[in-house]
């Protein structure tokens, strides 16, 4: 450890048992900006699931909104150390989207408008654990937070919840996404502090 | 407005890799071919790592992730870097 | 592991304005630096949490001392600590001075136009000080310097007395733009800088000045765009964006 500055605590608050190790609680919703914010009009937006055989399942914005909608309240944990408890979202469960999808793959890669990618095992997307969310706190999801729609996988570090998501690609083998290929953990469980390789 | 800084502000983190100040080196963008000092690139510092993007096409030129124990540098968006000796 | 972090000692503090403080540091082994460079400062909390921020060097001293001027941001993580929490005798971890791009070179005879928004005046002050202290034989020593300084109000301006004194010489001209509150009796009402006021205050295109613009990202971006639209070549304009500190011209 470097020179300690006695009166310096940073933005951290008191430790909380609801928080994974090394996390601090925030009331705000920090935006981590890795690039220009993509602006996607609903008419242009689509979401796809592509299987190992090349079959593409496709939803337009209207088709996506016509699917069964879930309202969920979840804690989210960012690898940069902030956590936010009890956030409320509206979106479509991945179980709903995968209903008609046939695949033997165990892994997926999420692709976003703007080029971002992140890998998530298929098991972590199914069983009521993940959504494509398009509302936050009762409002349309803002572009800065990933709108029109983002992946929401709250049980993993939040970089797995790809902003501006546009599709999932099914993979036979796990492959690293954007941050995973540069030091970040392939899985990213906040309770086991799987931040880096 | 998107909040980025100048590549110049990456001089500190990059000094852990390079003995000379690499922000004054000219780099060529792999995507659009634009060639300019890295100091003029767009720096996104407050993400999961530090990103330098091309001011011409906004593609990524360089990525740096500091995990505490290691620092990872990914230069795959640069097809060429030119340094001047003083 | 090779890292550039070194321990500096705080050897002086002085209040610059109501919301900003100048810290004088001694960095053993430092032998001067270039005007316009910055340092990275790393703070470590007792639980090991660290935060790193960049600060421009304000001084132009030849030895192992340097000065930073830090503006306190509401809700900021690091700046309130540097403005209120640090005292003489404390140690700080510092990397640098670094950056070879946003620097003034005394070997360059070009006239220089400096444009500052708020705390963006800090590295420009280092250039003004280096210019005033330059070896008279160096080509840049007799170059014309102009500073255009956009600031909230008269009492928010940094380095007031020193700038007044230096502006008394015929090598430096200082123009203030007050965005919220003008000095009593000022003929110009307070207001943001605009393209027209900018074009009147800066050196003409024919002088082919070297520009250094520094301040909040939105300020720097707007001013640089106006200059390019006014016909100044983009490669004569160097910028240092401080990030989103909430203010535009
Ligand atoms: C090359 C360079 C040189 C610089 N030189 C100087 C200089 O000479 N002097 C100077 O004063 N500054 C300088 N800066 C700016 C400086 O680095 C810092 O950005 C500035 O001091 C703010 O840091 P902070 O930790 O106080 O604020 P931060 O914590 O970084 O926050 C910045 C702003 O965002 C808001 N914010 C961000 N996250 C949250 C959150 N989770 N919750 C609530 N609010 C939040 C805060 O309200 C604050 O206003 C320079 C920057 C660069 C890049
Ligand atoms: Zn490019």
UniProtKB/TrEMBL annotation, chain A:
Give residue ranges for domain Oxidoreductase molybdopterin-binding.
35-179
Q: Which InterPro entries match?
A: OxRdtase_Mopterin-bd_dom, OxRdtase_Mopterin-bd_sf
Q: Which Pfam families match?
A: Oxidored_molyb (PF00174)
The record lists the membrane-crossing segments as none
Lineage top rank: taxon: Bacteria
PANTHER family documented for this protein: OXIDOREDUCTASE MOLYBDOPTERIN-BINDING DOMAIN-CONTAINING PROTEIN, PROTEIN-METHIONINE-SULFOXIDE REDUCTASE
Q: Report what the protein is called.
A: Sulfite oxidase-like oxidoreductase
TrEMBL record, chain B:
Concerning InterPro entries, the annotation shows: DUF6510
> Pfam families recorded for this chain?
DUF6510 (PF20120)
Lineage, top-rank taxon, reads Bacteria
Please report the name of this protein according to its UniProt entry: Hydrogenase maturation nickel metallochaperone HypA
Organism expressing this protein natively: Cryobacterium lactosi
